[in-house]
Amino acid sequence: MNINFGKYEGPPILKKLIELQNVLGDPEQFYLGFNFYLSLENFRYFNTPSDVVVFGNIGVDGIHYGFLTDFGSVNNLEVAPIVCVNPMDFERPIHIVAKNLSEFLRVNMTDSELFYNQFDSEENYLLAKEQWREEANSSPYQPTENEKFLRKRVSNF
Q1: Domain boundaries in the chain?
Q2: Strand order from edge to edge, sheet including 37-38
Q3: pLDDT tens string for the chain (157 positions)?
């Protein structure tokens, strides 16, 4: 973890997430609950800013999350803004998605789509969310009882 985090110590919340992933014993189970994988190695793309400390990815299109250090001016990663880097979005690959890791996790648990999709309005977002819900409900690939249990377990954590 120190290779990726440089001078920074991992924030307590991130340490708890690492601990949970270790308890679960499987990154897939962690993903089921949090909608992202922990990325504690040097996970970077050509357009990942050099002042971003990456901590997670969604496993698709290179989309990843990190702490914005503002070239070292942030003293503590616990209060660093969180950015989403979407290498496939050539016009706007980087945007701030949360004021800190706590806010990121709160939003991510219910609305992670906000981080890597762009909407013209709140109405368009709500329409898309309803469409996704309908598609999920009519999908033949429903979550298993074990997946539901794991989501609840991770959410409670």
Answers
A1: 2-156
A2: 37-38, 52-57, 64-68, 82-85, 94-98
A3: 555 677 888 899 999 999 999 998 889 888 888 899 999 887 888 888 889 999 999 999 999 999 999 888 898 999 999 999 999 988 888 999 999 999 999 998 888 888 888 888 999 989 998 998 898 888 888 888 888 888 888 777 7
